[in-house]
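Example 9 (inverse folding). The structure is encoded as follows.
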């Protein structure tokens, strides 16, 4: 495994050297940039397949997600009755030599997510009846590979955003973007797993792409439909992804109307054409509210009090930890960022400390988008500045909402979970664009024109030499950041955790 890690590290340095070469040579530049994205796609997908085969339980709650798919397949319901859903055992029946799993009808499925992802997963098949009414043959890898295909669509949209919006005169900028957008460890860990996080990559990417087009002034039907599809599909997949998209869209829309002093971005033909798309989500949540009296049911609501108090989500008062607010914040932030820079599942493959060198680059991602407010970066960002800033604010708002929910659960029932950072993977393009724009804004103008490869020296030679040295340091810093992101994913796992 270590040999594979060393080979992957060597490949990065080959790409970095090539990025320098094509930065000063026009011929073959676009093909090289396309290769960067192709490599990152293959690398991330291969990492996902590796985890799916190497780690027994690839994704958090995978058995429950599979059981959700099975419930819809067996009942044919469009909108599930969550209280009737059960879960599969996570282990194969001991007497079986084929993948037979017990359907635990005495246990309630704790997933109350909207059903879009699970309806799509029904197309994968993977379930076969046995002679027993409560034992089902499940082809997990068949389901996982189908989910991988869903995830790859989202990744392709991530890469398209970077490829189409960043200057192709600077290959190193695309290397930084591609490595950043694809290197969150939980992204590759979940890529080939049965989880609704797979679909949120696509739904959020559609919304982000639509809002970027909107900010660029491309306010046609396609733009409004992209935003509508992104928001609606997110609402029908996962609430946290929907909050991210809705808050970002509202900020972009309101900021645009204030800047332009006009309601035209809202009151227009293209928007009205896209309105019926939103009605699908409104209808779903209307039905859910009429059934359960809430827009997002929970296990606590759909199961009995006695049942709920015997789950991991309820801690007996005698066994609860005592934290004051400051102590809880410290605990929450540590667990959140360790799961952001590492892998948090049935097994924990995390960095040692949140301030270790291999963890810090992941953590400062949360700060970098704020630097788009600075004049130098905002000038380079141009029309990308509004969606990046709006996306960052949306991330912060959603993070605060998640923290509030987790702290409330801790206070009311002693539960110390709810810190899952993987909820923010759908907005990786916002982080990656911010990183690329930051390094772009830090560059000094030294007269080099990448489109022609010609350098025109203005001013005295010592000034040019200082600017050249400064730019070289910026390039090295950018590539070092990209390397740490890349190294901190699969290579780190292979070197520290794989046998």
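The amino acid assigned to each position is listed next.
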């Amino acid at each position: 495994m270590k040999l594979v890690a060393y080979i992957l590290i060597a490949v990065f340095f080959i790409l970095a050297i090539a990025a320098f070469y094509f930065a000063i040579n026009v011929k073959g530049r676009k093909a090289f940039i396309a290769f960067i994205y192709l490599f990152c796609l293959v690398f991330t997908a291969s990492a996902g397949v590796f985890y799916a085969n190497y780690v027994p339980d690839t994704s958090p709650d995978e058995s429950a997600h599979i059981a959700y798919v099975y419930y819809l397949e067996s009942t044919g319901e469009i909108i599930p009755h969550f209280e009737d859903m059960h879960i599969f055992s996570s282990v194969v029946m001991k007497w079986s030599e084929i993948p037979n799993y017990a359907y635990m009808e005495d246990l309630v499925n704790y997933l109350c997510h909207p059903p879009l992802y699970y309806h799509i997963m029904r197309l994968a098949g993977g379930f076969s009846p046995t002679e027993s009414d409560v034992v089902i043959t499940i082809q997990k890898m068949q389901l996982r590979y189908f989910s991988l295909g869903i995830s790859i669509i989202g990744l392709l949209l991530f890469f398209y955003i970077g490829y189409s919006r960043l200057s192709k005169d600077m290959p190193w900028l695309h290397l930084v973007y591609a490595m950043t957008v694809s290197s969150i460890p939980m992204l590759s860990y979940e890529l080939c797993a049965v989880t609704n996080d797979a679909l949120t990559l696509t739904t959020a990417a559609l919304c982000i792409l639509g809002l970027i087009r909107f900010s660029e002034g491309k306010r046609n039907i396609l733009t409004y439909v992209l935003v509508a599809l992104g928001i609606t599909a997110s609402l029908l997949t996962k609430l946290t992804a929907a909050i991210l998209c809705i808050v970002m869209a509202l900020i972009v829309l309101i900021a645009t109307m204030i800047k332009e002093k006009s309601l035209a971005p809202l009151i227009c033909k293209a928007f009205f054409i896209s309105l019926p798309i939103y009605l699908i989500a409104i209808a779903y949540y209307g039905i859910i509210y009429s059934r359960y009296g809430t827009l997002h049911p929970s296990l606590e609501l759909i199961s009995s009090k006695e049942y709920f108090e015997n789950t991991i989500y309820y801690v007996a008062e005698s066994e609860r930890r005592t934290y004051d607010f400051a102590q809880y914040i410290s605990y929450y932030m540590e667990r959140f960022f360790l799961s952001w820079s590492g892998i948090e599942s049935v097994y924990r493959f995390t960095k040692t400390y949140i301030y270790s060198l291999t963890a810090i680059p992941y953590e400062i991602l949360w700060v970098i988008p704020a630097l788009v407010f600075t004049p130098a970066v905002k000038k380079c960002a141009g029309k990308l500045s509004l969606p990046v800033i709006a996306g960052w604010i949306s991330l912060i708002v959603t993070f605060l909402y998640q923290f509030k929910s987790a702290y409330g659960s801790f206070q009311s029932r002693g539960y110390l979970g709810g810190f899952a950072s993987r909820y923010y993977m759908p907005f990786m393009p916002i982080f990656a664009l911010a990183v690329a724009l930051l390094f772009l804004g830090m560059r000094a103008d030294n007269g080099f024109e990448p489109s022609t490869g010609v350098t025109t020296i203005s001013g005295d030679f010592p000034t040019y030499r200082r600017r050249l040295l400064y730019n070289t340091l910026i390039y090295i810093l950018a590539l070092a950041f990209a390397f740490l992101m890349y190294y901190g994913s699969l290579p780190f796992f292979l070197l520290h955790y794989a046998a």
